Every structure is written in C-alpha cells, then in structure tokens.
Design the sequence.
C-alpha cells in the first residue's frame, strides 16, 4: 500500500433529491486521479461517513473502488461508535477491494489509554489490512497519547497515524520518535509545509478536494528540496485552507469541487449549508486564487 503523496478523503456528493450522487462521485475520483493524487480515502470525516445509511456506505465504497480501477491507493474509513462495528466496516472494505483502513478512537465514549489500545489491537487482530490510526481529539474528545502510538506501532498491521491534533509540537514528537516502519501523516492542512520540512511525505488532506494537483506538486517539491516552490504553493492555497480550517470545513470542501466542474451538492444534517453570504465569500476567495 503506497501512502506517500497526497491522499484525498473524498467528499460524498449528494443530489438535489438528497441521495448519494454516484455519478458526481465517479467524476471526482477521475479528476483526482488525473491530478496526480496517490490515493483516496472513502467514508472519512470529510465524506460525512456518520450521515450515511448502510446501503449508502456500500454504494460510496463500491463506486470509488470501481472508478479508481486500481490506479491509486484505496483506503476506507472504518470509524464507528463501537469496536465490533469498526470490525464489520473493516471486513466490508476488504470484500470491496480496499488496500488499507483508517480508524479513530470511537467518539463519545471517552476511553482511557488502556481502552484505546484494546480498541485498535482488537480491530487489527480481526483484519489483515494495514491500519492508519487517526488522531483527531477535537472531534473524538480524547487523544491517542504519544506513548500509546508507540505501543500500537508494534502491531504489524498498524502502519501509520494521520496526525490531526493541530498541535505541531505533538506532531514533531511523533516524527522525532523515529518509530520503525511507521508513517507520520500530515492531517492538518494548514501545517502541511511544516510536516514536509521535517521529512513527512504523506498528506491526507481534505483540502485536496479543492487543490489536488497543487498539493501533489507541493509534496513532490518537498521531496526534491525545492523549498521556494513549497512556500509558493502553500502561500497561494493558504487563504482558502485557512478559511476551511476556521469552520464549515465540509461545506467548503464541497463548494471547492466546483473547481473541477463537479457539483458535490450540499451537506447532510446535522451539518447545515452555508449562508448565501458565506457561500459567496468563499467562492470569491476561490476565484481570487492565483495558482
């Protein structure tokens, strides 16, 4: 499983009838493949996995896999409120041909570190697929401690962590730990250049729904030590990325898909659409982008 480069946690487009828009999803997969991304994460946070019915989840996973056609890495988000449901999600992803999995600590339950270890250990024992830990305490309510990450990394099929804490000191502690055969993955779009400077070469970026080619170019530039190009690419995207990180991330990621000629529709409750004023402001910011 190749996870170097940019992997897009793809939005789930909805039509005007409120249903999953599989045609738009196929179009987005094709646009992202052509833009040079390394992979796609289906049913992640940016994909509003929590708002999908079981049949819709299967539709999204199947559509992405068929549209990708083996050309890029496919990872399935398998987050769930319980460990058994995460295992069921993992088995479904394997059956549909996914190469890897991404998994958080279950939300709402607020487990201690011992429970976090057992959650990931139990899921890892139930699947042969490689697992990327997903640390996102702002959404989940608890953090996977650095010591816990090091312990979990000893499990052969736990292969990396998407670091989305927003605290680069923590990210740097993980990078400096130099965990063998374990990837630290940038999950904070506004800090991606910092991750790249410290040698990280994998970026799971919701912002890549908007800037797939630019972010792929940014990772390539870093690999070639072209730091002026990294700075220029990040500077160009930064106002839009900052606006996304400041709130209404999913809504703005979907609006940004218009850059690719694809209407991803609106979000589902409990998320609410942007106001007309906020939508105009964000689209004007996209129009002003000079990439």
Sequence:
């Amino acid at each position: 499983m190749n996870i170097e480069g940019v992997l897009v946690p793809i939005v789930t487009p909805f039509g005007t009838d409120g249903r999953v828009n599989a045609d738009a999803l196929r179009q987005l997969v094709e646009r992202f493949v052509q833009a040079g991304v390394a992979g796609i994460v289906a049913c992640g946070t940016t994909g509003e996995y929590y708002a999908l019915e079981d049949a819709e989840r299967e539709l999204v996973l199947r559509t992405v896999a068929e549209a990708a056609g083996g050309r890029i890495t496919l990872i399935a988000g398998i987050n769930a409120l319980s460990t058994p449901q995460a295992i069921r999600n993992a088995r479904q992803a394997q059956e549909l041909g996914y190469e890897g999995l991404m998994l958080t600590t279950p939300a709402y339950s607020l487990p201690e570190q011992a429970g976090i270890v057992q959650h990931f250990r139990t899921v890892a024992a139930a699947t042969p697929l490689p697992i990327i830990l997903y640390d996102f305490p702002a959404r989940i309510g608890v953090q996977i401690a650095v010591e816990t990450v090091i312990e979990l990394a000893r499990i052969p099929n736990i292969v990396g962590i998407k670091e989305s804490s927003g605290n680069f000191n923590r990210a740097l502690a993980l990078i400096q730990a130099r965990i063998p055969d374990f990837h630290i993955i940038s999950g904070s779009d506004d800090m991606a250049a910092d991750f790249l400077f410290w040698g990280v070469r994998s970026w799971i970026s919701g912002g890549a729904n908007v800037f797939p080619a630019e972010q792929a170019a940014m990772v390539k530039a870093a690999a070639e030590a072209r730091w002026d190009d990294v700075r220029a690419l990040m500077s160009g995207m930064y106002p839009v990325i900052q606006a996304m990180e400041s709130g209404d991330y999913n809504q703005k990621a979907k609006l940004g898909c218009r850059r690719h000629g694809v209407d991803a529709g609106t979000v589902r409750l409990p998320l609410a659409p942007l106001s007309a004023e906020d939508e105009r402001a964000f689209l004007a910011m996209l129009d002003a982008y000079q990439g």
